[in-house]
Each structure stands twice: as structure tokens, then as C-alpha cells.
Please model this.
Amino acid sequence: MKRSVETMMAASRRGLVLAPVAGLLLSVAALLLGNGLLGTLLIVRAGQEDFPGGAISAMMSFYFAGFTIGALVLPRIIVSVGHVRTFAGFAAIASMTALVHGAVVEPVAWMSLRLVTGFAYAGMILATESWLNAHAMPSTRGQLLSIFGVVSMGSWAVGQGLLNVAPPAGLTLFLIVSLLISAAVVPITLLPTRPPAEVKQQPVAFRDLIVMSPLAAAGAFLAGLAIGGFWGMGPNFGQRIGLDVGGISAFMAAVLGGTLVFQWPLGWLSDRASRNVVIAGAALASAVAAVGVALAVQAPLPLLLVAGALFGGFGIPIYSLCLAVANDDLPPDRLLGTARGLLLLNGIGTAAGPIIGGAVMNLVGPGGLFLYAAAVLAILAVLALARRTAPRPIRARAILCPGTPMITGSLEAMIRMKEASQSEPRRPSVVEDGA
Model:
């Protein structure tokens, strides 16, 4: 307790740059309001247009595929042109694709547009997160990233409510998405850029990642498979069980709202107990809740919302818990490369989740989406319990920021890595001069 008070006082003395941080968070809020609305809107509209179930699931998978590709290749662009120009450029692309969705209502076209949208959002999110990270000091970084996670998840949840502003069959909602993305550019472009400091890190191959931190690798992939099915097909699930537009938006918001409630307690508990046990418990609880969602398809809406909130509250933070495990297993000079590998594993799982979940829905009905998620989460729980971990000191590194879909966990890994071919000598920092 005394240490926590001292940390807070030290952060206050050093000063938290509130103005730029507030602007960044405002940009993130507007950006994810639009993204949360667009993802649900497209599935609802696709259902109204009688798109085949396979086309809907593939369309959602294309978004996560685009995001994963962007996470791999965009750091070079951000380093080359800067954070502001990267954000503004990809915001323009995302704004245009949102409008094209409304003008060209056709499955193949929407698949291509979702791929481009995922790629563009990866650029904006990576630029925003790294910029936010640059304003933080070691004593304030966890606080800022935690606030960032809450704002992200809260904005995504509120975006579901915007689905009720206008009929999904019209162009109005697509215009609102475009306006929100464009509005996100205003705060971030009015702030001075401050790129992250250069950090030397060793790359980590997939084989090394699996050998050194098998639970983190398996957990990131399996969490992507399970939760990715919800991200891609959750609104379609609500549509198939007969929910109206208001019910679908309420269900999606409930899952995200549950994450806001449980992510902090799970992170706190993982710092004080065995992380593999916490991951196993969260996965098992989310699996049970997923079965509850599948069984509640004919139940009153409040019961469905409660089950959905428990599913998201325990399931979505699993990825950030896996990042914490990787922090415990690996030396400091390999953490950034590891985070990048975990993001890719999670992205692959998230991209495959909607396709597999959609196929199961076609076989056994709408509840199959959550039965599939329950089976994957149960496998993860067994693997986590089977994995024995060495005792760690209380001061072990921890991921304090909440887990958000395909966003957190790779900030420094994605941005701070420079091209090996850059031969310009690095200036010594003030700390190094003082040393």
C-alpha cells in the first residue's frame, strides 16, 4: 500500500502530460465508436440482404486478416512518415471504405473492403498507441495504458448503441461511421508528435516463442479462435435467434461491458497468484458462460445479456494475461519480439474464428457459435492447468493494461523496431549521459 502511494506521488511530481493524452484518448474514442458501429452494422445489413452465412463469416475474417497484415508491415511506414501522417492517411482510407460499403452492397466487394478496413485500422491504432506510449514514463505507463483500454472497450460498447440511430438498410449509419473516423483525425493532428525512443530488441522466431513460453503462445492463438468467432459472428447470432436491432446492440454491448468489469480484477489476481491458474479459471468461467449463452437463446433477453457479459468479462482479457505470462518467461531483450509473435498468433486465430464459428452455426444452429467457443476455451483451461510454472518473485513484470480486441499488447513491439539497415548512429540519451 505504501509503495502504491509513493508511486502515485512520484507520478504526480513528475507530471502527467494531460492535454496531449486527453486528445489522444478523444481520437481513440471517436475511432472505435465508428469501428464498433461499422462491424455490427455490416453483419446486420448482410443478414437483411440475405448474404450467405459463409460469405458473412468470411467477410468478418477478412477484417482481422487485414489487421494482422497491417500489424506486421505498418511499423516501417510509421517510422518512415511519422505518427500524424500515418494516422491521417489511414483515417482517410477507412472513411472512404465505410462510404463504399453503403454504395456497393455485394458480398465479394465487402470482403475486399473489410480487408482494406482492417489494414487501415491497424495503422491508426498502432500510431495512436505508440504515440500515447511516448507520453508515458515508467511510473505512469501502466496507468495510461489502462485508461486507454477502458476508453477503447467503452467506446466499442457505446458504438453498438448507435445502431439504433437509423435503419441499417439506409446510408445514414455508414455516413455516421465516416464522420466519426474523420472526427478522430482532428484531436490527434493538433498535437505535437513525439515518436517513441529507439529500443534494441532481439527478434523471436515462432519456434523459440513456443519453446520458451508455450502457454502464452497457445493461449494467444486459442483465445483468438474463441473470441474471434464472437467478434465476427456475434451480431449474426443475435439476428438468427430473432433479436431486433436494439436487442443485437444490447447483446454486443453487454459482452463488452462485462470486459470492463472483470479485466481489472483478473489482472490484479494474476499479479498475486499463479498466472496459469488464473488463465485456466478465466477460460473455464468463460466457457461455462458461453454454454449459458447457447442455452439462453430462447430465454428472456436479460438472462442472455448476463450470460454474454460473463462470457466477455472472463474471455476477452485472456490475451493480456498470456502477455503477462510471456513477460515472466522471457528475458527483457526479447519481450518486444515476443509480443509481436503473440499478436500474429492471436490474429491468425481471430481471423479463423468467424469462419469456423459460422460453419458450426450452420451445422447445429445459432447456439453453435458459443458451443464452439466453449470447447476451445475448455481446451485452453486444460492446457493452462497442465503447464507448470516456476515460482516468480512478487515484483515480477505484469501487463496492467486491459486486453482489447487486436489492439493492446504490442505497442512497443510494433513501433519501436527500426530497420536493421539504418546506419545512422543513435544519440545517447540523457540517462546514458548521466550514467
The chain has one domain: 18-417. The first helix runs from residue 2 to 14. The mean pLDDT is 77. The two ends are 31 Å apart (CA to CA).
